[in-house]
Amino acid sequence: MESKMERINALLEKPCFIMDYLPEQVEPDNGGQFFDVEYYLLNSDKHTGLKDRFVAIILKLMCYYHVSILWNGWVDRPSPKMIEEAVCEIMGNHSGTLNVLFVEEDALLVFDWDCLNLSVYNPSEIAQSIMEKIAFSEGLFWRKAAD
Question: I want to staple 121 with a disulfide (CB 3.0 to 4.6 A). Which of 45, 99, 102, 108 is the partner?
Fold first, then answer.
């Protein structure tokens, strides 16, 4: 039987969708100030607004799906408080990753501290529909990741 880490590694190779602060990927040489804005949003007091959005998305998804998270070891069916504490710690420390495995869906949500988005790997069409609505409810865009 494959381990959860093997499952995560396999899912990271599957199609990826993004719940993003911006409607499309910004090219590094587009002439805008993406990196200034990203740095400000992630490193100023404004990061609490992003934290609240990301936590709300994960909590809303937990209403639909059985999840396990990789946070100081594997935690099956984490409490809402644990989700908020994990995201808060990652953003406060400016480092870390939270992997949210959708156990029965064979999908994975990844939160990395240095991004203005959440990455979702291998969501079914039904999950995509739900996730798009949830992203919209939190003021984020849903799109397929660039290859």
Answer: 108
SS3 51: helix
Please name which of 52, 25, 62 lies closest in space to residue 139, comparing C-alpha atoms. Answer: 52
Q: What single-letter amino acid sits at 11?
A: L
How large is the angle between the packed helices 80-93 and 47-64, nearest 10 degrees? 150
pTM: 0.90
Between CA 112 and CA 137 the distance in angstroms is 21
How many residues appear in the chain? 147
For 88-147, write each residue's pLDDT tens digit: 998 888 889 999 999 999 999 999 988 889 999 999 999 999 999 999 999 999 999 986
The single residue listed with the structure tokens 């992003």 is 50
Distance, CA of 101 to CA of 110 (rounded, Å)? 9
Tokens of 90: 């990652």
